[in-house]
Design goal:
The chain is 77% helix and 0% strand. It folds into two domains: 63 residues, no CATH class; 240 residues, no CATH class. It is elongated, with a radius of gyration of 26 Å. By secondary structure, it is mostly helical.
């Protein structure tokens, strides 16, 4: 059942919904009255990733071999570590997948309606400035408009330009494979203590490249690691293998729990609720442009009227 569950995690992560029924059928065939399987199936069909991952964890935990002593301790720990490493990789990739989708939406928003928004905020600022000159009590409203315009311009200047073409299905798969491969070689919990700071720096670059869908940067990171950047962790001197693996397992389990909380927060955010429910982004932005254009036309007419009005 473990292999089925791991396969199911990958299917959910990559959104391969057409493969879901066959994998769930396989799970049902291997079912021996497992508690929680019905909840997992319901979560999968409702595409509730966080709840499905939670159900998978519970099923894996229920089948974890009991911890004995001696060599059995090591066998159990290594098994648990491999499973937790898979969970950590899947959860980390899921989080970056969500952030990459949100980032792409924000970039497209900036590309599609950024100029209109900037012009509209500028005109509103100028109109309020005219009003403030005649009515000093409008100073706070003008200050809010001035600050809103400034913050919008700053946010636009910090946004990356929308120049990288969207990845096709083959490239998307390559991106996911590279992420899993690289993360296993540079995750801070998988290297020696003295290498953890360097690993964290590379891991941060990995996540940034994944969010930006930058295949070239991913390949560069992999080349760096393959040429001897960060070897996998070795035994720490003065610490038994059981102690080392136990500590590593505890850290990884804590990080998995943290990632799942962060995934839940992202999925509950307003922007993800919008992005995940949009069936046609082009139509959405077309509606936004039409609305902003009408508002801008109205505000510009008022602006020109006031500018051309005779002064008292």
């Amino acid at each position: 059942m473990f292999s089925r569950l791991r396969s199911l995690q990958t299917i959910l992560l990559q959104g391969r919904w057409d493969e879901l029924p066959a994998e769930l059928d396989g799970l049902m065939m291997e079912n021996r009255g497992e508690a929680g399987l019905e909840a997992l199936i319901e979560a999968c069909y409702s595409r509730d990733y966080s709840r499905a991952e939670h159900c998978i964890q519970q099923l894996m935990q229920a089948h974890r071999p009991p911890m004995l002593r001696g060599d059995h301790d090591l066998t159990g720990l290594r098994t648990a570590l491999r499973l937790t490493e898979t969970r950590l990789s899947v959860a980390g990739q899921r989080k970056q997948q969500l952030l990459r989708r949100i980032n792409a939406f924000r970039l497209k928003h900036n590309h599609e309606v950024g100029d209109l928004m900037a012009r509209l905020l500028y005109i509103r600022r100028e109109l309020l400035h005219m009003e403030m000159l005649k009515e000093p009590d409008k100073a706070s409203a003008w200050e809010e408009a001035r600050q809103e315009y400034q913050e919008w311009q700053q946010a636009r200047s910090q946004a990356a330009p929308l120049v990288r073409p969207a990845l096709d299905a083959r490239q998307q798969k390559e991106l996911s494979v590279l992420y899993r491969k690289i993360s296993k070689r540079c995750h801070p919990d998988l290297v020696n203590e003295e290498q953890r700071e360097d690993a964290a720096r590379i891991f941060h670059r990995l996540n940034a490249a994944y969010v930006a869908a930058d295949l070239e940067a991913m390949h560069q990171l992999l080349k760096l690691l393959e040429e001897g950047g960060l070897p996998l962790a070795r035994k720490d001197r003065g610490v038994t293998e059981v102690e080392r693996l136990t500590l590593q397992l505890r850290r990884m389990e804590q990080e998995v729990a943290m990632l799942l909380r962060e995934i839940a927060e992202v999925e509950e955010s307003a922007i993800w609720q919008l992005v995940s429910t949009l069936e046609d982004e082009d139509a959405y932005f077309s509606r936004i442009r039409d609305r902003l254009s009408r508002e801008l036309e109205k505000e510009e007419r008022e602006y020109e009227r006031r500018r051309s009005a005779p002064t008292e």
